Amino acid sequence: MTTSPALPAAVRIVEMGPRDGLQNEKRLVSADTKVELVRRLEAAGLKAIETTAFVSPKWVPQMGDNAEVLGRVLAAAVPGVAYPVLTPNLKGFEAALAAGAKEVAVFGAASESFSRKNINCSIAESLERFRPVTEAARAAGVRVRGYVSCVAGCPYEGAVAPQAVAEVAATLMDMGCYEISLGDTIGSGNPASIARMLEAVMRRVPAARLAGHYHDTYGMAVANIHASLQMGVAVFDASVGGLGGCPYAAGASGNVATEDVVWLLNGLGVGTGIDLDALVDVAAWISAQLEREPASRVARAVLAKRAQAGCA
Amino acid sequence: MTTSPALPAAVRIVEMGPRDGLQNEKRLVSADTKVELVRRLEAAGLKAIETTAFVSPKWVPQMGDNAEVLGRVLAAAVPGVAYPVLTPNLKGFEAALAAGAKEVAVFGAASESFSRKNINCSIAESLERFRPVTEAARAAGVRVRGYVSCVAGCPYEGAVAPQAVAEVAATLMDMGCYEISLGDTIGSGNPASIARMLEAVMRRVPAARLAGHYHDTYGMAVANIHASLQMGVAVFDASVGGLGGCPYAAGASGNVATEDVVWLLNGLGVGTGIDLDALVDVAAWISAQLEREPASRVARAVLAKRAQAGCA
């Protein structure tokens, strides 16, 4: 028997639904729906909502309305809420800046094969491409968040060395990223491998500047978040309704659902400032828009209980 | 940062699919399918398979073929595999014994309201009803496993006091149960509340005689198993394909899926003796029999990856 380590008193959740959640949807979602999704997430208490991506519409047609969506979201921005957008290169950054972005995100992979197959360059080359973005962002007073993908495993290489993750994370921090989000892109991590990865990363980057971005492909995300909390990580990325499948296994789940994370944190007595019931309403609403059931266990259980209320 | 406590080197999984998994299925499943399910589970490496329940077919029609199923399973029993059956009273025990049972299970709730609403008697009265069962079992050389339900929460009372769980668990042990399975019947537990419950129980019952039986209603089961492993629990109940919904919230998930548990344990380097690929095949097969998709994330991800193999 052991005494559990103290957990953070509060956690910040960075909502991925409008961007990571929707980007692989085949059917185009209207800008109206995307803006409405952001508005409903704000109302549920989310304070950081990744809103869109400034990538080529040739590669990601779903994000083709990025300037319109960001512009409309920012036109009625809620004070205290951040609306980061993904900007993989200088062209994307300039478009985001023109649309009013105050925060952007860049990403690097911890796996050479993943980097080469996905963005056709080495890890080192990809990081060098971000340098002009981070420099331009600093000049413009725009905050930059950094993602590291494949922190636990890679679809091409299998397990990824914790040291490789630490190296990319440290480089992104040195370039000026205020926070490094560690992405288990294919969801292959477990509480032990995530803890080993975090130990290596924390030798280079303080826990206070780290976020966990765990996919629930194999149902491990909640356990991985709990393990990360025990190591002092206090920021987690999540996607309402579990939006966003796994691009490497169609039919499998993607981002951990925001409501599953909030349920865990409520149970652990860790504050989030998010209203779980309102969040489940958002999950039900966006899932209905996409004509499917919410992927999250919490949304399904809460909605089923509501449907039965009165018959107990 | 903390060093993780040592985990057990190996875990025993008690498969619940044929009993807890199927008992709430509305459409009757044939005895042939039930026996075939047990055979496929044995072939995947399961060493303990709860096979059926000796309860009144008036209350649980799905288990009406209990004697036939157990008889056929035992007629070709695999050496080293246990086939426990649920026997809530002496009448059920005698029928199970007549059908050849070598192991039975009894259950008590840790919540007074749950006990009264479900079996129409107090906790103390329900435990007294099991005394003749455990005495008859001892006389017949039959092993008895004890379940405690509602160890983290109750649908009527909310949170359940760890001390109440410890009391029921200790009573079942004193009656002669060789193992006490702690059931989070409504899945409302989280790693912190499960740890508090286990701490209280372990003051009365040694960890080596405890099992975790966690439902995944709110997606917490894998995290709860990880927390329990860290406290020395080395036996877990699970249901292939996540069979078995939550009777208190139709549409919500029930038992944690066996393949999710095996995936976690494989990742943690904890032995189970179970072949994960073969287990996913069983999940796919029984789900097809029931005309649905497997509920488990691991089964869905593995099956999706298999379907894509060749297109990478």
Automatic annotation (TrEMBL), chains A, B:
GO BP, one annotated term: ketone body biosynthetic process
Recorded metabolic or biological pathway in which this protein acts: Metabolic intermediate metabolism; (S)-3-hydroxy-3-methylglutaryl-CoA degradation; acetoacetate from (S)-3-hydroxy-3-methylglutaryl-CoA: step 1/1
Enzyme class, broadest EC rank: lyase
Keywords: Lyase, Metal-binding
EC number(s) from the headed UniProt entry: 4.1.3.4
Pyruvate carboxyltransferase domain location: 11-280
InterPro entries noted in UniProt: Aldolase_TIM, HMGL, PYR_CT
GO molecular function: hydroxymethylglutaryl-CoA lyase activity; metal ion binding
Xref: Pfam families: HMGL-like
Keyword Metal-binding part of the UniProt annotation: yes
Similarity field: Belongs to the HMG-CoA lyase family.
Protein name in the entry: hydroxymethylglutaryl-CoA lyase
Source organism: Thauera linaloolentis (strain DSM 12138 / JCM 21573 / CCUG 41526 / CIP 105981 / IAM 15112 / NBRC 102519 / 47Lol)
Organism ancestry: Bacteria, Pseudomonadati, Pseudomonadota, Betaproteobacteria, Rhodocyclales
